[in-house]
Amino acid sequence: MLRLLAIETATEYCSVALYQDGDVIERYEHAPRRHAELVLPWVEAVLAEADVTLKQLDAITFGRGPGSFTGLRIAAGVTQGLAFGAGVPVVPISTLAALARGAHKASGKAKIFAALDARMKEVYWGAYRFEANGNAVLTGEECVCMPDAVPIPEGEGWFGAGSGWESYAEPLSKRCAIDMTACLPDWQPHAADVARLAVIQYQAGQAIPPEQAAPVYLRDNVADKPKPKV
């Protein structure tokens, strides 16, 4: 029986999920600045609901980013601590891939432009195609850029999802030639989708030791920028 615990805190939404042989238990809430408060109690709650202990897990997975710097550090730090304690490996999953997977399942579309509002008039961007087994395949690279400069892969039938489409509807729809009716602008990444993508990677032997788990900021130069003196 395969069991994975998933944590996703890259946006203002917080979620924790437990995958157990195809079934998923999830806690999910819009909780700005409350991720650190909610994550561990929710971990305890989903494990208790399934009558599972940490040491019975096969791996722990988390949304590695891009997203909120604080949120990503919370997810990576909690995942590392729990994984060390349980003696299990870690499976980092792109937050954009998780966002795309949820939109893929909700819309039935196989090609998703995932965009999260990155502030500073930019978006976190990734173009994903979905295989028959539900695996997300990145086309090109994930990036952070202006909405009117996002890279567009060849082909038609793309569908938009994520807060970037809500914040920058006009430039993105013009750039991608997508009508906003072919979009889920309010869709958010869920731990349940992180978990289901992680199952595929875990079964492919792509789990890593806990000490190698790290956030992916895409805009990491901003995270390290010193604060101005006052």
UniProtKB/TrEMBL annotation:
KW Cytoplasm (keyword) present: yes
Gene Ontology biological process terms, A to Z: tRNA threonylcarbamoyladenosine modification
Pfam families: TsaD
Cellular location(s): Cytoplasm
Span of domain Gcp-like: 29-147
Main subcellular localisation: cytoplasm
Signal peptide: none
PANTHER family tied to this protein: TRNA N6-ADENOSINE THREONYLCARBAMOYLTRANSFERASE, TRNA THREONYLCARBAMOYLADENOSINE BIOSYNTHESIS PROTEIN TSAB
Protein name: tRNA threonylcarbamoyladenosine biosynthesis protein TsaB
Organism whose genome encodes this protein: hydrothermal vent metagenome
